[in-house]
Amino acid sequence: MRVGFSLPVFGSAAAEPGAVARYARAAEQAGAASLWVGDRLLSPVAPTVSYPGYETMPDEFAVAQDPFVVLAVAAAVTETVTLGSSTINAPQYQPTNLARQLTSIDVASNGRLLAGLGIGWSPEEYGAVGVPMAERGKRLDDTLDLLDAWWTQDKVSHEGIGYTVPESHVGLKPVRKPPVYLAAFGERAQRRVAERADGWLPVWSVPEQFPADVVTGAVAKLRAAAENAGRDPEALGVALRVNVDPGTTVDAIAESVAKVSSVLEPDHLFVDLTYLTSSVNEHIDLTGTLLELIAKG
């Protein structure tokens, strides 16, 4: 089982100077297979849409690092771990800048980037970047078109939504075309995964909030749709985020991870430590403990 962990992007651990580099080094040395970032621009005091399970927003989101900077730092201090995002809210970024950032991170990491993208759900965040939230789906499609051109063509031209790329030399290419995994729960979004993505970004919760067959059934449905679209269904990957409630024991986390992995068999799985630790030392200690418990089975 290849188990990864969230980097200290949110909360008090993220505010510690040098936290990302220190944790990334330690996690790789402890045996983590992957390291992951999330993406939160704002933590509104009175959000139009609250975070699932909260009346407003988690306290941890009041401190949020830039996901691209965090990935770049982690790339610089590690050698082998996959560096992923689950997820970056792609429509909130100007597409050509996003393409350059992702390419640069892949080059810096020697081809270890997994680009996990989504459309987000916060009206306040969309308002803060001046992007109409109603356009987020078609803007993600446009971004996927641009990324494909940016990563595969020496000369790139593109007519995007609100921007134009004249025919231009784009000489910086990723070490290998980064796999693009998409977060998707609605019908249109899941169709996009089946037709365009390299993988899906589902979520599992500890304590469990739904049976494992909800996730396995969704994967089977996505792979069937991919096959209907003329794609290899088995090539559609799964990167499972494991969200853990505050106060959950390490034994409960390890047991749940083993359970869901045995039935889902994801190609990537990572435990989000955001709500379990308040310092980088705790982040490091919990990572080592979980890896030991999971290895013991």
Compact description:
This protein has 297 residues and is α/β, with parallel strands linked by helices.
| Total beta strands | 12
Strand residue content? 15-25%
Any idea what the shape is? globular
Poorly predicted tracts of residues: none
Which sheet architecture does the biggest sheet show? 8 strands, parallel, barrel
> Order of strands side by side in the largest beta sheet?
1-2-3-5-8-9-11-12
Order of helices and strands: EHEHEEHEHHEEEHEEHEHEH
Return the average pLDDT rounded to an integer.
96
The level of helicity is 40-55%
Question: What is the end-to-end distance?
Answer: 10 Å
- The CATH class is identified as Alpha Beta
Number of helices: 9
List the helices and strands and how they pair.
Blueprint: E1 3-6, H1 19-30, E2 34-37, H2 67-77, E3 82-85, E4 88-89, H3 95-108, E5 113-118, H4 123-129, H5 136-152, E6 155-159, E7 164-169, E8 180-182, H6 187-196, E9 199-200, E10 203-206, H7 212-228, E11 237-244, H8 250-264, E12 268-272, H9 280-296
Helix pairs in contact: 1-2, 1-9, 2-3, 3-5, 6-7, 8-9
Describe this entry's structure for a reader.
This protein is of the alpha/beta class and 297 residues long. It has one domain: Luciferase-like domain (TIM Barrel, Alpha-Beta Barrel), CATH 3.20.20.30. The protein has helices at residues 19-30, 67-77, 95-108, 123-129, 136-152, 187-196, 212-228, 250-264, 280-296; strands at residues 3-6, 34-37, 82-85, 88-89, 113-118, 155-159, 164-169, 180-182, 199-200, 203-206, 237-244, 268-272. Helix 1 (19-30) packs parallel to helix 9, helix 2 runs parallel beside helix 3 and helix 6 (187-196) packs across helix 7. The chain is globular. The mean pLDDT is 96.
